[in-house]
Amino acid sequence: MTGHGKILQTEDLAIGYKTGKKVFDNICVSAEKAELIALFGPNGAGKSTLLRNLAGLQTPLSGEILLYGEKLKNYSRSRLSRILGYVSTEFIPVNNLRVKDLVSFGRYPHTGWMGRLGKNDIMKVDNAIDMVSIRHLKDKYIHQISDGERQRTMVARTLAQDTGIIILDEPTAFLDLPNKYEVVHLLHKLARESGKTIIFSTHDLNIAIQEADKIWLMLGEKMISGSPEDLILEGSFGKMFENTSLKFSRTKGEFGITRKFTAKISLMGPKTESRWTRNALERMGFGVVDDPAVQLQVVIHKKESLLEWELTFNKRKKQFWKIYDLCYFLADLGRSQPAGRQSGNEFSTSPRQTSHD
Question: Are the beta carbons of 296 and 266 closer than 8 angstroms?
């Protein structure tokens, strides 16, 4: 993120349907050069509608969108296509189209009415293919490549268009986890190295927190903008689902289920191993406490590459070499206790809370 000035901004923008029904209003956000921005919000918040408005594909109900300080509505379609590229969440497969041909479509705003590619256009296409690392795919047909490779091809097409602004609607939809990270990391790299302003919508908050310079958060009836770290520290993500069973961890930077604990257990050990042991124990319904007086105690011993979980219960000790085995034993032990008794030395867990994922 270079901070070279506002490339795109909105002023009191209201978006919605042609009928006049508002989806979201009072949108005041901005984007700078070489900045990667993630648009995040719940389903139905209006993310796709906002991106279509920013791309000039839909007319705002009110307010203004400014590109390079000029009102978007003053741009002609041909002029806009030279400064802004848009990648929809939908992809229409064309079986007889090669990767290099699809990428070359990005040059059409620059080729005139005959659509012939000159030397400069061919160079732009080749550069775009290299930037997303798909040269080995250029002669393959679209239906022969994977979803992740197809998404890279769509990004390459937009890069060949050679615009300063790129807008992508759910570029990681339908991708597996490695491809999700690869595509967003690619966008991050392109923003840095090419100086492009890239805006994308996503439901993958963890990835956005790691890669985006800024997040536009559609929170209720309010749009909040800031770096992922500022929004975490301000508690903005936690407000998204205040009245639900979800909670946002400021420490982990992710959402999780609000759990009701039915028993207590003490846990000691190395930091990383304790973190994941706690995760398993809390999933079972145990509240992890620092109290040597509770009946159940777990101590993690680490000797070089060997790990041992030592459980103390009913004045007895038992060793385990996997968290799964520890949890399985606790589940059986819990079912053997009288249900509902919660004194300091007794516990119970229900079968539902001890399923083995």
Answer: yes
